[in-house]
Amino acid sequence: MLILGSCSLISEMCCFVQPIKSPINREKEYVVVTGGNRGIGWSTVKALAESGMKVIVGCRDGPSRDLLYQSVKQAELPTESVEWINLDMSSMESVGAFGQAILDKNVPISLLINNAGTMASYTLTKDGFESAFAINYLGHFLLTHLLMPRLIAAGTNDKAARIVNVSSSGQALGFFQINDLQGESYYNKFAAYCQSKAAQIMFTKVLHELLTSKNKPVKVYAVHPGVIKTNVWSKYWFTHFTSIFSGFVGKTEAQGAQRVVYAALSPKAEDLSGNFFENSKVVQPIALVRNRDMQTQLWEKSCQLLDISQFGGL
Ligand SMILES: NC(=O)c1ccc[n+]([C@@H]2O[C@H](COP(=O)([O-])OP(=O)(O)OC[C@H]3O[C@@H](n4cnc5c(N)ncnc54)[C@H](O)[C@@H]3O)[C@@H](O)[C@H]2O)c1
């Protein structure tokens, strides 16, 4: 499985991106992006703001927020096109407050981009969750649950609201373990990262089925943005690897964002809800990630951990 996963990563690195050629005009629609202050998240924010959307960015206070506003200024975007609300994905209380602040605005949300992510040494959050599990997966599960009424309000039969979970081709490395979701028996930061990214795809599958069964105008996608040298690799040997390869495959944060924006806006993705995309094409996740029983168990465990009885009111 490791060999298969590595092949998928390497072949991915040698593919070129298919950009969305003409920007799609989505004026005055609201989109929420987590972790939008830098990296792929910031490039996504920029692309969406340029298409006319009002972008609500969830990021931490202090340097993260300052970086966001510096970038808005440099990109010469109208300041009112990007709004910042404090969000620390490692704290379920902060995710709750972020969700509530958006609900209080009383605007329909056309898009939710679950982008914030980390690869970290073993640490427990203040809620007692392993940090990659909490930040990459569980916090976004909670946020999606909280914002579902606004997404449903924004969607129509002609144009559904969309959720994009920024996952990774690391799903294919087979690190998912339903009985050790938080690395209690064995911990390796790359394995924990890949496990959380696999969980995002499983979440995407179950949510898609739930939304379809309730006939709700919301679509959900998981996307691998590409292997790109960003801060996510900063404490990992892989940094050197991406340095070597990024030179000739030319992947940039903006190209990574194009893949996210493709799932978020492209009419071609309309009928492809529930799928995982690599290089803007549907790819089957590995059997472990497609396993229906695992998906259901993960969903139930997540609801239990967060004390959710009816996901998103669905
Ligand atoms: N760069 C890659 O090669 C690659 C590959 C596959 C998937 N991804 C995914 O793309 C997404 C964006 O990552 P990136 O590559 O731009 O890296 P990055 O480190 O530049 O960006 C990560 C973002 O998440 C935010 N974040 C991290 N912890 C947070 C927390 N506790 N609360 C709020 N925000 C938090 C950061 O502030 C930052 O804005 C991540 O989900 C990552 O897993 C990246």
From TrEMBL:
Is the Oxidoreductase keyword given for this protein? Answer: yes
The entry's keywords: Oxidoreductase
* Domain of life, per lineage: Eukaryota
Under the heading InterPro entries, the entry gives: NAD(P)-bd_dom_sf, SDR_fam
Its Gene Ontology molecular function terms?
A: oxidoreductase activity
Pfam families reported in the protein's UniProt record: adh_short
Which family does the UniProt entry place this protein in? Belongs to the short-chain dehydrogenases/reductases (SDR) family.
The protein's name = Uncharacterized protein
